[in-house]
Each structure stands twice: as structure tokens, then as C-alpha cells.
Design brief:
Elements: E1 4-10, H1 14-25, E2 30-34, H2 58-70, E3 77-78, E4 81-86, E5 92-96, E6 101-109, E7 113-115, H3 123-128, E8 132-133, H4 136-139, E9 148-152, H5 154-164, E10 171-174, H6 184-192, E11 196-198, E12 202-207, E13 214-218, E14 223-226, E15 228-232, E16 235-237, H7 240-244, E17 268-270, H8 281-303
Parallel strand pairs: 1-2, 1-6, 2-3, 6-17, 8-15, 9-10, 9-15, 10-11
Antiparallel strand pairs: 4-5, 5-6, 7-16, 12-13, 13-14
Helix pairs in contact: 1-2, 1-8, 5-6
The structure holds flavin-adenine dinucleotide.
The site of flavin-adenine dinucleotide has 42 residues, from helix 1, strand 2, helix 4 and helix 8.
């Protein structure tokens, strides 16, 4: 029969790896199951992550966390979790893509989100080159006085374009043939901020020659050239496992958690981008620390 782990962490990105380091130091018997698709892998170089004055790539941060974990003799198991069932004794049974099963007394969900990519060939390379961007909080500072496009609709598109206005006056908001889709106030605010709104359909989005920017060709033949395109097309939270466990999701599809990162289901914690809130490396790390500490305290209380 399989081992009953103290904890199973699902997701070995930034939040899951941090939780694992803490659980290792709490001398807990845990397993870290990972699909190896961390959003951090898309980060060309983060310059807002604290304590790295020269910036740090997402890959380097992941590999530093894995190295730190290896120092305690642990490492992520590359295997996706397909389903989680609760057993009569309250333990969780995780069914893995490989066919293997894992049992654990507690669960930390650190499954992240996926960004909806704009229609550009090889989006991963375009993001790595800084031509397509997803996070103005992370990298708008590097785009001061540059020409930018924001692709999206509704309040999200308006909000992102206005956020970028702190950095540059040269912004065009693109809706790709759809109406802007928010109250007139949104349109008026764009206008007041000097942001051009283009609701025409887009024929193609491509990297400019020499990776110098992005060329957006509209269906009427007009061309818009910018230094980078911010996608405001949203994200898909990986919250299916939480929903299967009966955890009510927030309106945005993410998992609500309390200040200890506890979810609505007893014995289940959630951390990082999949939790409603600010999607940042430091936030995922902090939430991993908080959850792991609460898991350990909860197990100690149950034990003694
Ligand atoms: C282009 C880009 C630039 C960014 N720049 C910055 C920046 O400069 N500064 C900053 O602070 N933040 C930045 N971020 C955000 C940062 O990457 C995320 O906030 C951070 O990675 C979130 O960590 P996480 O652990 O929640 O999720 P992730 O790191 O995405 O990890 C989630 C992991 O869960 C795994 N998983 C999902 N479902 C399952 C399953 N069923 N079974 C097993 N494993 C599963 C996935 O495979 C993945 O490995 C950026 C993001 C992007 C996309």
C-alpha cells in the first residue's frame, strides 16, 4: 500500500517550490507533483523581484529554488495530477497522469494560471524577447516613453492601458474587431488620457524585422508599429482540482483563500497565481511560506 504523506503539493512553480522548501525544513514527509509549465519560465528577466538589483530570469529563480530543495534531499516529481478524491478517513488520494497514486493528509494547491496569448507565431519566443508582455506591474518601467499596444476588451483593456499611461504617452488600445465592450466612461477615460482606440479587426500580428518591435496589420491594410504589445486577453486559472473538491471558486475562476492560505475545504491550502490577488513572484513565495507553516502547525496539533 502506498505511503501516507503529511502533505501533497500540486504544482512545482514558484509558490509550490517555496512551500516545499519550508515543509522540508519542518521535517515533513511530502511530495511535490509538477506539470513543469511554470509561468516563471516565460519571464525574460524580472527587474521588480526584490533583492536582485541586476534582475533575474524566471528559469534561474526556478533552478535556485530546486537547488535549495535538493539540499534537503527532495525534488519535484514530474507528473500531472488528474484528479483528487477524499477518502473516508479524510486523507486525499491523488490520481496522477502516469497512473501512479499518492495519498496525503493535507494538500497545497499551487497550480498557477495560463495566459491567453495573442495570435502571434511562436508566442513563447515573442514573450521571451519582450515583444509580447503580460504584466505591466512587472515590466512597464522598462518601457518608459516607448510605443505600446494593449490588446483586449472591456474594463481589463481600459485598466491596463491607463496603467501604462504612467510610463508613456504612446499607447494604442486594440480590440480586434470587437466593440470596446465597457461603459462609455471607459471610452472617455481612454480619450482623456490620449490613448488611441482602434476597434478594427486585426489581420496579423508579427515581430518586426530584427526583433525591433511588433507590427499589427489591420484588416483594412493599415499598419501599427509598436515597441511591444501588452496582452490584456486574460488568463485561465488552473482551479479544476479545487472545483472537484467542492471548493467554491471566485468570479474570476480563481481560488479564494484566507490569510493563512486556507481554502473553504478543510485540509486544503492554495497559493500563488491560482489564488485571487496580485500575480507576482514575491506573492507566490510569501503565500507558499504562509501555507507551509500553517500546514505544519495543523499537523502538529493533530499529532499531539
Ligand atoms: C511573461 C511573464 C513575465 C512575468 N514577470 C514577472 C516579474 O517580472 N515579476 C514578478 O513578480 N512576476 C512576474 N510574472 C508572474 C510570475 O511568473 C508568477 O506570479 C509566478 O510564476 C506564480 O507562481 P505560481 O507558483 O503561482 O505558479 P507557476 O509558477 O506558474 O507554477 C504553477 C505550476 O503548477 C503546475 N501545475 C498546474 N496544474 C497541475 C496539475 N494538475 N498537476 C501538477 N502540476 C500542475 C504547472 O505545470 C506549473 O509548473 C510574470 C509572468 C509572465 C507570464
Amino acid at each position: 500500500m502506498d505511503t501516507l504523506h503529511d502533505c501533497a503539493i500540486v504544482g512545482g512553480g514558484i509558490g509550490g517550490l517555496t512551500a516545499a522548501v519550508y515543509l522540508a525544513r519542518f521535517r515533513r514527509r511530502f511530495v511535490l507533483l509538477d506539470g513543469d509549465t511554470s509561468r516563471a519560465r516565460w519571464i525574460p528577466r524580472s527587474r521588480n523581484h526584490p533583492a536582485f538589483p541586476g534582475g533575474v530570469t524566471g528559469d534561474e529563480l526556478l533552478s535556485r529554488l530546486r537547488d535549495q530543495l535538493a539540499g534537503y534531499g527532495a525534488r519535484p516529481v514530474l507528473d500531472r495530477v488528474e484528479r483528487i478524491a477524499r477518502e473516508a478517513d479524510g486523507a486525499f488520494r491523488l490520481l496522477r497522469a502516469s497512473g501512479a497514486e499518492t495519498r496525503a493528509r493535507t494538500l497545497v494547491l499551487a497550480t498557477g494560471v495560463s495566459d491567453v496569448e495573442p495570435p502571434i507565431a511562436d508566442a513563447f519566443e515573442a514573450v521571451k524577447a519582450g515583444l509580447v508582455r503580460h504584466c505591466p506591474i512587472c515590466d512597464a518601467y522598462e518601457m518608459i516613453d516607448r510605443r505600446l499596444a494593449v490588446l483586449g476588451r472591456g474594463d481589463h483593456c481600459v485598466g491596463e492601458a491607463l496603467f501604462l499611461r504612467t510610463y508613456t504617452p504612446g499607447i494604442v488600445a486594440l480590440t480586434n474587431g470587437a466593440p470596446l465592450g465597457c461603459a462609455d466612461a471607459g471610452r472617455a477615460r481612454l480619450e482623456a488620457a490620449g490613448i488611441r482606440l482602434v476597434e478594427a479587426a486585426i489581420e496579423s500580428i508579427a515581430r518586426a524585422a530584427g526583433e525591433t518591435g511588433v507590427v499589427v496589420r489591420l484588416a483594412d491594410g493599415a499598419e501599427i508599429r509598436v515597441d511591444a504589445l501588452y496582452s490584456a486577453m486574460g488568463m485561465r486559472p488552473h482551479s479544476g482540482l479545487a472545483a472537484d473538491l467542492g471548493i467554491p471558486l471566485a468570479e474570476d475562476g480563481r481560488i479564494p483563500a484566507d490569510p493563512h492560505q486556507r481554502t473553504a475545504a478543510d485540509g486544503v491550502w492554495a497559493v500563488g497565481d491560482v489564488v485571487t490577488g496580485l500575480n507576482q513572484l514575491g506573492v507566490a513565495m510569501a503565500q507558499g511560506e504562509i501555507a507551509a507553516t500553517d500546514v505544519h502547525n495543523r499537523l502538529r496539533r493533530d499529532e499531539w
